[in-house]
Amino acid sequence: MKGLVIKSTGSWYDVKGDDGTIVKCRVRGKFKIKGIRVTNPVAVGDIVHFEVIRDGTGIIHKIEPRTNYLIRRSTRKTAYGHILAANIDQAVLIATVTFPRTSLGFIDRYLVAAESFRIPQLLVFNKSDMWNDDKEILAYVGELKEIYTNIGVDFMTMSAKTGDNLDLFRDKLKKKISLIAGHSGVGKSTILNKLSPHINQKVAEVSTFANKGTHTTTFAEMFELEKDTYVIDTPGIKELGLIDIYDEEISHFFPEMRAFLGKCKFNNCTHIHEPGCAVIEAVKNGEISITRYESYLSMVAGFDSHR
Q: What gap in Å lies between CA 158 and CA 109, rounded to an integer?
């Protein structure tokens, strides 16, 4: 049989067959994916071939080639990656400016991971109801909107609590398979529960002491919102270590830096210290955001530390 992986709990996978039935499956032997080492050979979104055995469970024996996938460095085995989801149309990041605060470095690493497969990105700042017309926060959000829309990232604000812009968010998901990611506590589960009555993800309060969320989603799962519209919920991501990308390639996945490639004095320019670097000049001239450039430097340093 052939089916779609809609849930992953580590060693077991829920696979929705072509006939609509859902079968709990295991993997036969060890899958090895050419070129990368991963902790989870099968991911939500994969199209797999499986057979049902006597006890009613299934055995996965083949994964069809992926059109794309989003991967991060494993937090337990740093030489390995962990695939968040496969075969997606859109990478959505839920972020917050407060309670908890999402760092720009984390946002940029997520966008780079998606851009490496040219997966369209949607950046959503939730909890707008908590800004209370704070001019400083509103100005900050305005700056972020300018930075990210200028590089082609879809950007919006919303409040899952009040429902503000929830319909707009729903429209942006239509007819797509969207991966929904973000730190714990940013409101992913609340948003998903509001999107559809049959989604019942566990919700927890953000700690006022640490200003951080607690993990409520413990495994990746795909939900159907309506015909041809799917969302994949993932466990809250604390860190997003890049993997499967060479450090000299990172600038290729910054659209604003990509525009200056080939214009530097040296062909192998790292855009860090070389004279005649078009990227550094663009940063000085304000054509490239300083925060984005700082994220780039951090990513390159991070790759060097894992050599």
A: 22
Q: Which residues contact 217 (CB under 8 A, 6 or more apart)?
A: 188, 189, 201, 202, 233, 234, 235, 236
Helix (H, G, I), strand (E, B) or coil at 253: helix
The residue extents of the domains of the chain are 2-63, 69-233, 247-305
CA distance 160 to 203: 12
> How many CB atoms neighbour CB 198 within 10 A?
9
Place of tokens 């079968």: 23
The secondary structure element, H or E, covering residue 156 is strand 154-157
The domain made up of 69-233 is a member of CATH 3.30.565.10: no
Pick 117 or 132 by higher pLDDT.
117
Q: Give the span between the Cα atoms of 212 and 184, in whole angstroms.
A: 7
- Which value, to the nearest 10 degrees, does the dihedral of the CA atoms of residues 208, 211, 217, 221 take? 140
pLDDT in tens, 172-212: 999 999 999 999 899 998 999 899 877 765 554 544 444 44
Candidate from 171-175, 224-228, 294-298 with smallest mean pLDDT: 224-228
Give the fold, CATH level 3, of 247-305: Ribonucleotide Reductase Protein R1; domain 1 (1.10.40)
Q: Which helix (H) or strand (E) holds 293?
A: helix 290-305
Phi, psi of 139, rounded to the nearest 5 degrees:
-65, -40
Asked which of 141-145, 156-160, 206-210 is least confident by mean pLDDT, the reply is 206-210
Three-class DSSP labels, 161-220: CCCCCHHHHHHHHCCCEEEEECCCCCCHHHHHHHHCCCCCCCCCCCCCCCCCCCCCCCCE
Q: Please write the tens of the pLDDT for every residue from 21-49.
A: 999 999 987 666 655 688 888 999 999 99
Q: What is the DSSP string of 20-61?
A: S-EEEEEE-S----TT--BS-SS-TT-EEEEEE-TTS-EEEE
